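Sat 14:20. Reprocessing the chain from the morning session after the first attempt stalled halfway. Input below, unchanged.
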Amino acid sequence: MQTLIAPSILACDFGRFGEEAHAAEIAGADWLHLDVMDGHFVDNISFGPEAVSAIRRQTKLPLDVHLMISRPDHYFPRFVKAGAQTITVHVEADHNVAATLAAIRGAGCKAGLCLNPATPFAAVEPFLSDIDLLLVMTVVPGFGGQKFMGDMMEKVSAAADRRRHEGFGYHIEVDGGINAETAAIARQAGANVFVAGTSVFGQSDYAAAIRTLRQRAA
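Finished this time. Tokens:
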């Protein structure tokens, strides 16, 4: 599948949200990844639908919104309205997973499902026919700058095997500690969407950083 680079806005300068989103677009990003955290499901708070709406006005890039929140079924419509193209929810969160995925698709968005490092791949297997994207966390979610967990590649490989054998069309996304080296590892395992935080927004040349990631992940 096509290699897609999705810089994570969580790593940008929060005082320049709009400028940073536009800069990522000019630099060649494919998507923008937006981590929404509520302080309950994960031990951090980021931003809500109004920030997503503000970013939407500054870029034409698809917005890949990752809801790290306790009740994604209740809140996701606000992010649809804010301009998300893809909304990813956690299999571990407090909701009816199948119903939420169906509702996201029914609202005109692509539906993603995420699993945390401690969650076995078996937890998402019943829903693989209902998703457009599977997000495998390669760090414990909530904070940026963590070290890539290479043992999560077993889940990526399992997802790629199921996709191939069952004829599914979902993207496989990895998020956490992604840089040129780890992107190559994840691609070999079967990932095709790479969420990059400091490896893009922490660099002086966003375009060069994105080119390097794309080359290593191709």
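DSSP finds eight helices and eight strands in the chain.
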